[in-house]
Design goal:
The protein folds into three domains: about 45 residues, no CATH class; about 60 residues, no CATH class; about 60 residues. The chain has nine helices and no strands. About 5% of the residues have low confidence.
Length: about 200
């Protein structure tokens, strides 16, 4: 084998594809081979070179994404209902502020517990993964079914009832005449059937 043929064998295919039959091999580009062709080094076994790269999401979350996830999980429709009852039960504005601060501390403790679980058990699945790791598969399976049958539907029903109440309330401005319960329930059913399915 001549020196030109050896140089030709070292050039990657993409660099010699522009050689026409009229050109001789001596006119082909003779760039040095860097050892990086395709997905690996030519010295690697063929099975390893042909292994497809896996595609997935990056396992990272920024400050803004973390804050929006926590705010989205914590703030629900209850914030539009509970201030009135908290103020009535507390008896004063100062005492109601104390109740809100204590509730915020409990929410912060829960968020920190979830943050520690997320850094300790780095699997996707949220609560399911944590319960599976701590208590086993039966408890995790029961959690999924309880969430599916009880927790999520009741949460959606509460959100729909609050939404319906606030949509109908402007048509009943007199505080002594609240919206009829039947109208609120019908609007909530309409909300669930049209917007939450």
């Amino acid at each position: 084998m001549t020196k030109e043929e050896e140089t030709m064998n070292q050039v990657p295919y993409a660099q010699v594809s522009n050689v026409s039959p009229n050109n001789s091999p001596s006119e082909a580009p003779t760039l040095p081979y860097t050892g990086k062709l395709g997905s690996g080094d030519p010295g690697m076994p063929i099975e390893q070179m042909k292994k497809p790269e896996t595609v997935g999401l990056k396992r990272e979350i920024g400050l803004l994404n973390g804050v929006t996830i926590i705010v989205g999980c914590i703030i629900g429709s209850g914030i539009f209902v509970s201030p009135k009852s908290v103020l009535e039960s507390a008896g004063s504005v100062g005492m109601s502020m104390v109740v809100w601060i204590v509730s915020g501390v409990f929410s912060l403790i829960g968020a920190l517990c979830y943050a520690e679980l997320g850094t300790t058990i780095m699997k996707s699945g949220g609560e399911y993964s944590y319960i599976l790791e701590a208590f086993g598969s039966i408890t995790a399976f029961l959690l999924l079914w309880v969430t599916l049958i009880i927790i999520n539907p009741t949460g959606q029903a509460i959100v729909a009832l609050v939404f319906a109440y606030y949509c109908i309330q402007p048509f009943y401005p007199d505080p002594d005449c609240p919206p009829p319960d039947l109208f609120v329930r019908l609007a909530a059913v309409l909300c669930i059937s049209k917007f939450m399915v």
